[in-house]
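[Automated response] Your request has been received and processed.

Submitted sequence:
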Amino acid sequence: MSDIFEEVDEEVRKDKYSRLWKRYGKWFVSCAVALLISAVGYVQWQKYDFDQRAQSSTEFNAALRLINSKKPEEATRALAELAKSGTKGYSILAKFRAAGLKVQAGDSAAASEIYEAIAEDDEISMLYRDLARLYAIMQRLDVSDTSELSIELRELLSDDNPWRFSAREIAAVLALRKRDTKSAKKYFKMLTDDPKTPAGLRQRASNMLQAIDG
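Generated structure:
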């Protein structure tokens, strides 16, 4: 890990922001967000009555077994069926997992489309809609206009948004992409100063602040 940040430090000091973005942009985001959906899923899905979710749980686990068996096409079909007929909670989870398969296959456009559909669904809790929006932005980091992405990210940066920490890190990376060191430092400092920031994310932000000032 230290070697990575030594390289980042060198990139920043040489003012090569485009290379910094290309090599490290998605790394920051993936570190911050990778486990979010599983953590939220564990807490929220416990709220569903067992009788209502038992069948959907069985179907979802079957889809996961197909994924683990390296059968993505069959898994995709199983998840699509669950998204249509499963209980509300598992239907949402199936959509997220289906998008994840697209990400693993390198199809960012298809993944982004699924995430955007979740984010625009008024029947889904805002908690998951915001998470989907965050993932959708991630998938477009290398293909969409940086300023456009920054605007879309704004509503996720509020102090009461549960995904604000990851959103702030993405905002900092987008600022680096625009060579806006001042804004990047602002977002990284927000992460280091907030006692609620997850430890790993705070450490990355601290390392980046040192690299920028170095």
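Summary generated for your ticket: The chain has a mean pLDDT of 80. The radius of gyration is 18 Å.
If you did not submit this request, please reply to this message.
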